[in-house]
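In practice, a research group might receive sequence data for several interacting partners and want a quick structural hypothesis before committing to experiments. The following worked case mirrors that situation: the sequences arrive first, and a predicted assembly follows.
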Amino acid sequence: DTEVTQTPKHLVMGMTNKKSLKCEQHMGHRAMYWYKQKAKKPPELMFVYSYEKLSINESVPSRFSPECPNSSLLNLHLHALQPEDSALYLCASSQGQQGNQPQHFGDGTRLSIL
Amino acid sequence: AQKITQTQPGMFVQEKEAVTLDCTYDTSDPSYGLFWYKQPSSGEMIFLIYQGSYDQQNATEGRYSLNFQKARKSANLVISASQLGDSAMYFCAMILYGNNRLAFGKGNQVVVIP
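A structural hypothesis for the assembly, expressed as tokens:
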């Protein structure tokens, strides 16, 4: 079992739906991340939150909206997604931004857009 | 920006044998961290081992060891005594200290056969 919990594990939605992905960690980590991973490709960074503030947005389309309600929770709000957004979405956390601490990942949410 | 290269094709490994996965990187920054992650077909990204650019000794974690050759900019992962459960995709990743962008290589697929 991972210490980063993501829900739901699977999500199928239409292009007009609004849904949210959730991520929770209780390791006291102060940095949290969203990644997108297509099949047989490495993860691609989307967003970084540090001390509950958005510190990196890798030019992600506005149909993806991140939110960090507190230091343990990270959400990704989805609206008007496209079929090419179908992917595995991974959440991760780390102690800080020093770079010498590993990022710990959740099991991911497999998202399919119809 | 940092760049990670993993060029080996998919590998078949006999159970109980050792396997070496190659990783080279490119950066002009002297301060960085190198990571290896394992991703089984189920999707979770599992942290295996970390090596800092200033570490004098090669990192080891159980059956995993990292062969760090700084001058050659390589950080190969060695898995000793392969087990069936080691079948997975393995990603080499790098972060520059103070920069929260974890850059992944393309990955190495490993299949352990009995």
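Before designing any experiment, note the following. Chain B has a mean pLDDT of 94. Chain B touches chain A through 26 residues (CB under 8 Å).
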